[in-house]
Design a protein that fits this description.
Formate dehydrogenase/DMSO reductase fold; mainly alpha; Anaerobic dimethyl sulfoxide reductase subunit C; globular
Length: 266
Amino acid sequence: MEHFELPLVFFTVLTQWGIGALLAVIIGQQRATPVFAPQTLKRVALFVWLVTVIGSLASVAHLGAPTGAPRALYGLAHSWLSREVVAFFLLNALTTLWLLMVWINVNARLTTLVGLIAVLLGFIAILVSSQVYYQMVLHPLWHSAATQLAFVGCALLLGFVSIAVFARLWGSDVARRLQLGIVVGVAAVACAVVWRYRLPGADAASLLLWWQLLASIVTGGVVFVLLRQGKFAPWAGVLAIALVFTGEIAGRMLFYSNVMSGAPWF
């Protein structure tokens, strides 16, 4: 029986997307001519916030008793799961503060500083989240640096693809640094896939794997090429974001099912 753990799939993919997108926004705005004008930036910031918060709410669906979530704090000294709860709580608080600062037009430097702190905390949260799985030494598919690489790669690929597409559709231009972010994201996801599927027990025949290869890695490469050529219709941009998102969802479903479909898995 397959165990995809969909709440965890959407929690990890969406929050990582939001973190990567926030990084891409901050980088894109640090130019003589920012990628997004102030009014457009407000819409983009709202998108980043929504993705992050919706992803965080998905994690609540995984809890048998969501009202008991505060008890996770009791294990902060020894539990990676407890640290994950705290990290994402702080991330959501900082992302919300950054959104408010963008919307009420607070000083740009101060807003950027808060955004950078949120990004730093976000990537710490990603590494803490990956450690929840990496610590399980009995499962080579999780106890591998491919776990951290896949989580960070997801953040970079989804984040930079979406913000680069928004920049192409609504911004002044697609900054080269955003295009570079896509390349790094594609490379990280590809390396994680190759690494993981060299390990015993990996389901290399799964259609989910092939969909991730096509929808995440190939689409990411195509987006980079089209952006370089300056040819990108609005419908193509929306389709590209949707494809990469579904590709990462497929990859994360396989990440969980490869281990949790076994019995016992802990």
